[in-house]
Amino acid sequence: MKKLFCLLLSILLFSCNSKEKKTTKDITKDLPKEIRTDLYGSYVGDFTILERDTSKPAKENYINKINIVIKRITSSKVTGQSIVAGNSRPLTGTMTTKGSTVHFILKEPGDDKNDGVFDFEIKNDTLLTGIWVANNPKKEVSKRKFELIKKEFKYDPNVMLPKDGMYIDYENPREEQVTDLEVEEGKEAETYIEAVFRAASESIMTINSSTQKLKESDLKNLKKIDLEILRNTIFARHGLTFKTKTVRQFFDSVEWYIPVSDNVNNELTTTEKENIVLLKRFEKYAEDNYDSFGR
């Protein structure tokens, strides 16, 4: 009886597996054929304002770094993703070919106030150029242009911020009253209000917060802005798209930085997680110096 039961169970399992394999095969067979797979990948560069409503306060950056990812192309449908300024949005649309020109119209879903339509061409398989138009014409920025280069994202824990960069927080100025001490004899000294900014030290270009297990002695003399940049450099190496302009101003112009995701927490190494905890603890008590800088 036991042998008979085992035999029936084996037949049943074999039958189920065969059915499952057949179903999977049929589904694959029914999928539309993919074309122009050579165009798949990330296209990265500046997302620049073309039209802005100047009657409204300027809240949006003139330039953001954008990554347009093309994931799948068939004769009837293209799917992809746009990643910019802390937003990661799915794209769907179509591709048409005329001569050597490949033309795309890809739409964001439309359920977000910042959604719009990308209209672009790809030239020589590597250069993507076009415009984006907001769904809401009353939005502060209703049109942007872009010219993007094809780039492959690869996590590299050893990349550092460029040493020739100026890491000044222009997004959070303070106002200070300044007295002009160089006055002519017999005249009163003039006082005026001047905007001052915080600037990072060279430590952010020498301390690697991804590979180096940080100690309290490494951080105790750093400024608050140093600690913030060291912490966010970890996320930048993993391709996090930053929501705040305060952080984006330090990374958008960096050559190796490619925004690829709005959440990279599962990608962090043990060393990085421990460093983030330590850096955030020091940020609570650290202070900054402010000074005047030209823009």
Description of the molecule:
The termini are far apart. The longest helix is centred in the N-terminal third of the chain and has 29 residues, at 2-30. Strand 2 and strand 3 (78-84) form a beta hairpin. This protein has five helices and eleven strands. The strands form two sheets. It has an eight-stranded antiparallel β-barrel with strand order 1-2-3-4-5-6-7-8. It has a three-stranded antiparallel beta sheet with strand order 9-10-11. The chain has 295 residues and is an alpha+beta fold. The model has no long low-confidence stretch (mean pLDDT 90). The protein has helices spanning 2-30, 216-219, 224-237, 245-251, 270-283; strands spanning 41-52, 63-73, 78-84, 87-98, 101-107, 116-123, 127-134, 141-151, 168-179, 191-199, 290-291. The radius of gyration is 27 Å and the shape is globular. It comes from Flavobacterium lipolyticum. InterPro entries: YARHG_dom, YARHG_sf.
